[in-house]
Specification:
The complex is a heterotrimer of chains A (223), B (294) and C (404). With 294 residues, chain B is α/β, with parallel strands linked by helices. Helices cover 33% and strands 30% of the residues of chain B. In chain B, helix 4 packs antiparallel against helix 5. Chain B starts with a strand and ends with a helix. In chain C, strand 9 and strand 10 form a beta hairpin. Chain C has three domains: 105 residues, no CATH class; 112 residues, no CATH class; 172 residues, no CATH class. The chains are: A mainly alpha (223), B alpha/beta (294), C alpha+beta (404).
Chain lengths: 223, 294, 404
């Protein structure tokens, strides 16, 4: 049963996943080529100098990519469920509703997490050839909030889609925007430091929110 | 024996608007119950409560003895659901959706599904979203038949279907339900279709149930009478006579009473009538007779 | 489900505690005009330029006597600030109160020094460029490596991202010889080629001892700087001024400021009353006779004039800000949440609590909440009521939206 449910999620999202992967590869390729160009034009020492002493961040193009990936995956997964109220079919499947929703949200979250980790790993591996570990640490601290924004967006899109009334849906959208804004307070390299851990707690904190939307759907809240 | 569905004292309001108060009905095992009502009388509300997608303001609805809002997976397995508009996972094709659902139901009857699919002229890889409304209804029906549930809940199955598909749907469904002793709860706005399908009818008007009876009993006893009457304006005071209408001195009423009973009743009240004619009704006419044209 | 609802309400309240003050700031913030002050070595008083908003003109005046000057007069009472104008006009005096001032003096002893809390509290990649300080060239050239100093000192070559083992070992020996206790706590230098000369880095070790590191002819120069007993440096700013009279300023835990002079690494205290590097900005405008030490805090600006020779504060003025800022929202919002501050470049959640008047507003919102729930004929639950009582308008909004 779980496999069948995951198959359904896969059916909805396969083109989006492919799109996200291609976009991720394209973005990294572009960034690496751009860095390569800088190596050739200005030399490594100059590049290191601007990164360290002028606080330049070489992977700034990554900024909104995880967010876009999270939103797209969320939309791909949950908009087909609310069109024609198909969620009724899903909730009627002979599984506990909690498990059904957990599997659906968990599918997207794990998929994103896996892809994000891979994406970060690519950047780290590439960087480790050309940059010392201090750069990589700073890189991780800088991009971590952006990737968390992707996870946040995904689970909150689920909450927003399943919510049955527009009034609360608009409220949820505002809560999502505010929560995601926490990940984009500044893009000064390394500024988040250990506050990233706090954001990770927020990512976990919002995960059960979708259950509340399901509950509201089940009791038949209407505009 | 415990009824399959039991609704007790259902009361629901949307805001301050009362849909109904203290609605009670049951569906015994093996019966096909049709819920008939005009738009806005609470058909969809009842279906939603039954499916667990609406919490009534008070009262409860039990399916297989469990509260409808909180069914266990095992009970859900015994209930087949057809959502208004034959909604299904349109992003799958017919074989994918068959494989998908088969994982959830231990008694899955694959052949029942494909028997119906073979009638459709569609490519095996064609997505449901690219099918016609009629074809989609067949897919939805095929899935329910393959699920082989004990209780089927069908919300407005005739919506968007042309007569051929409607007939096909009714034929398959009634054959299936009757031969396998299934319990069915069905709504439709096309009453003709229901007549060929249902055993019992539950007719709702604004705020209440007008009548719950086996269809054949209704059609045997509920009749239309035409006559000429000297004081037609007093007829509406008789509770035995439903929806009296007089045009050019010709009066038309509906009643569960027989012709002689009706005559006796009017004589008792000092009314004289002339040229009484009795007419047998179809279910649709009976429905209009009970609920009025407006 | 109620628990999840309360989770949502708590998050939404937190977001409002952050967003609403932010909106308020965006709408109402105005630049607090930083008024120019300079100590006149002639008049022995602070002078200022103010803007007369009524007549839209600049007012130049002596802050002690209140006497106003025109532009040319103002130039002449601040000769050490406007000396280029005075020189070009041929009005530059040879002496000020009997002390000879030469252009050379002014050029070499004039410097500007700024320090902000963000200089100290800022994320930084811990790698440092150490230039050759005796290259024999006029311009500084990139050294071809950077060093890291953790439990040892290592030079890394950017071209191949490899540690330069020879150079690292050479420098490591110097550190060991000087009894440096790794890891380093503070490492401060000016890694820029746009400076007249290179004085390398000032580094403190794990025991708060200070060292001066330079590279001379490719070899390490490491010297211990004797700082006063018990002083624990928290921030160092290396200066490299044109007269080479001193190396750096540093600040200690007690908010005291010190100068490391070139003369035998003498460490002298600079009087900077009421300065806290974690909250205040400082600017020093130095000339051969006086240092103008400006301390900018939330309350306003304090300007001190320090006699260069005696190192004593000879005069001071205070310019207060109009302190209306906190006003409105500290009354309305029981809690304001900030992630950014002018004191640090790190993202850091900070909470500020409102004043007593908040209680009245909270009560108002509780009553409003009760009224609305009554009007909607909804049952009142205890927890949302308590939450509105605690958080006022911030909790009122989400509780209202989600109470149905």
């Amino acid at each position: 049963m779980n496999r069948a449910l995951l198959f359904k999620e896969y059916k909805k999202t396969k083109w989006f996943i492919l799109g996200i992967i291609l976009a991720g590869i394209a973005l990294h390729t572009y960034t690496f080529l751009k860095l390569g160009r800088s190596f050739r034009f200005a030399g490594m020492e100059h590049l290191w100098d601007v990164i360290i002493n002028r606080d330049q961040f070489m992977f700034r193009d990554l900024k909104y990519f995880p967010l876009a990936a999270g939103v797209c995956l969320g939309v791909a997964q949950f908009v087909p469920e609310v069109i024609q109220k198909r969620i009724k079919l899903t909730l009627h499947l002979p599984l506990s509703e909690r498990k059904t929703i957990m599997l659906m949200v968990g599918y997207g979250q794990l998929l994103l997490l896996g892809f994000f980790l891979l994406h970060i790993l690519c950047a780290v591996v590439f960087s480790s050839f050309h940059f010392p570990y201090e750069f990589i640490l700073s890189f991780l601290q800088t991009v971590a909030p952006w990737y968390m924004a992707g996870l946040l967006a995904h689970s909150m899109i689920a909450m927003i889609c399943i919510e049955p009334t527009w009034k609360v849906r608009v409220f949820n959208i505002l809560v999502m925007i505010g929560t995601i804004k926490m990940c984009y307070i500044t893009d000064f390299p390394g500024a988040y430091g250990i506050v990233s851990c706090l954001l990770a707690i927020v990512v976990l904190y919002v995960l059960p929110f979708t259950f509340y939307s399901v509950y509201r759907f089940k009791i038949g809240e209407q505009d | 024996m415990q009824p399959i569905v039991e609704c007790k004292d259902l009361t629901h309001y949307y805001g301050n608007r009362c849909i109904y108060e203290n609605l009670n009905f049951t569906i015994p095992k093996g019966r096909i119950l049709g819920l008939l009502g005009k738009n806005g009388t609470g058909k969809t509300t009842t279906i939603n409560i039954l499916n667990g997608y609406l919490k009534p303001r008070s009262g409860e609805c039990l399916m297989f003895g469990e509260k409808s809002g909180n069914l266990s997976p095992a009970t859900k397995q015994k209930v087949g659901l057809l959502i208004e508009g034959h909604v299904q996972y349109a992003f799958m094709n017919i074989s994918e959706i068959e494989r998908f659902y088969s994982a959830f139901y231990p008694n899955w009857r694959k052949e029942a599904y494909y028997e119906l699919m073979d009638l459709l002229k569609i490519a095996p890889k064609q997505k449901i979203s690219r099918m016609s409304c009629g074809q989609r209804s067949q897919v939805a029906l095929g899935l329910i038949l393959a699920q082989d549930p004990e209780l089927l809940i069908l919300d407005d199955f005739s919506m968007g279907l042309d007569p051929g598909y409607r007939m096909l749907f009714v034929d398959y469904l009634s054959e299936y339900a009757k031969s396998r002793g299934k319990t069915v709860f069905v709504t439709s706005h096309i009453i003709q279709d229901m007549e060929r399908l249902i055993d019992d009818c539950l007719i709702m008007d604004y705020g209440s149930i007008v009548l719950q009876k086996p269809v054949d009993e209704l059609l045997t006893n509920f009749q239309r009478y035409r006559f000429k009457c000297d004081k037609p304006e007093v007829l509406k005071d008789f509770k035995e006579m439903k929806n009296p209408v007089t045009i050019n001195g010709n009066t038309e009423v509906y009643s569960l009473c027989s012709g002689p009973e009706l005559q006796a009743l009017m004589k008792q009240q000092g009314l004289s009538i002339d040229g009484l004619k009795e007419e047998r009704l179809s279910l649709e006419e009976a429905f209009i007779g009970l609920t009025g044209k407006y | 489900m109620k628990t999840i609802k309360y989770f949502i309400i708590v998050l939404a309240t937190g977001l409002l505690a952050w967003m609403m003050p932010m909106m308020y700031h965006i709408i109402t913030d105005e630049a607090s005009g930083n008024i120019f002050t300079y100590y006149s070595s002639l008049e022995k008083s602070f002078c200022t330029i103010d803007f007369d908003e009524v007549n839209e003109r600049l007012i130049r005046k002596n802050m002690k006597t209140g006497k106003e000057y025109n532009e040319a007069e103002f130039d002449s009472i601040l000769p050490l600030f406007y000396y280029r104008q005075l020189l070009s006009d041929g009005r530059m005096p040879d002496t000020i109160h009997g002390v000879a001032v030469t252009t050379k003096d002014i050029n070499s002893k004039t410097f500007y020094f700024r320090v902000n809390p963000t200089d100290k509290n800022t994320p930084h990649i811990p790698l440092y460029t150490l230039f050759e300080s005796m290259s024999g060239r006029v311009n500084l050239e990139m050294p071809g490596d950077l060093f890291r100093i953790t439990n040892k000192i290592e030079f890394v070559d950017p071209e191949n991202n490899q540690v330069k083992t020879g150079k690292s070992a050479l420098f490591m020996r110097a550190f060991e010889k000087r009894n440096f206790h790794f890891p380093a706590k503070l490492v401060a230098g000016n890694p820029s080629t746009r400076k007249p000369y290179e004085e390398g880095y000032f580094i403190t070790d794990s025991e708060d001892q200070m060292f001066h590191l330079k590279m001379v002819n490719g070899k390490p120069f490491l010297r211990k700087v004797t700082i006063p007993e018990g002083v624990k440096p928290v921030h160092i700013a290396v200066m490299e001024p044109s007269d080479r009279s001193f190396y750096a300023f540093f600040f200690d835990e007690e908010h005291k400021m010190y100068q490391i002079q070139t003369d035998a690494y003498k460490v002298v205290a600079i009087p900077t009353p009421e300065f806290d590097l974690n909250r205040d900005k400082m600017m020093i405008m130095a000339n051969p006779l006086y240092w103008n030490i400006n301390v900018m805090s939330k309350k306003g600006k304090k300007a001190f004039a320090m006699d260069v020779h005696t190192r004593e504060i000879v005069d001071q003025v205070t310019i207060d800000h109009d302190t209306k800022e906190a006003g409105f929202f500290s009354d309305l919002f029981p809690v304001s949440l900030y992630f950014e501050s002018p004191y640090t470049r790190f993202v850091k959640p900070m909470m500020y609590f409102g004043g007593v008047t908040v209680l009245f507003f909270n009560l108002f919102f509780v009553l409003l909440f009760v009224g609305i729930m009554r009007y909607r004929k909804q049952p009142l639950s205890f927890i949302p009521l308590v939450w509105v009582a605690l958080t006022g308008v911030l909790g009122f909004i989400p509780c209202l939206v989600l109470s149905k």
